[in-house]
Amino acid sequence: VNGKTGNLGNVVQIVRQKNKISVTSEKQFSKRYLKYLTKKYLKKNNLRDWLRVVASDKESYELRYFQISQDDEESDADE
């Protein structure tokens, strides 16, 4: 905000409702920048290998686990 990093101030509000987090901004805040910040947070906390950021619709993102199929692992073990 105002050209300073790490300064959300009163312009950006983050609200948690059970398993949903809502980010509301009074100033222009791009969806792509929110995705960038989310990925940066996941990498910093070593969660990037387990979770990914997926656009669920035009106005929101979801965090989903990577799909690890057990069939592929079993076929590799057989060979």
UniProtKB/TrEMBL annotation:
Does the keyword DNA-binding belong to this entry? no
Keywords (A to Z) from UniProt: Ribonucleoprotein, Ribosomal protein
Q: Which InterPro entries match?
A: Ribosomal_eL22, Ribosomal_eL22_sf
Ribonucleoprotein recorded as keyword: yes
Q: Name one Pfam family in it.
A: Ribosomal_L22e
Q: Name one GO cellular component term.
A: ribosome
Task: Give the family per the record.
Answer: Belongs to the eukaryotic ribosomal protein eL22 family.
The name on file for this protein is Ribosomal protein L22
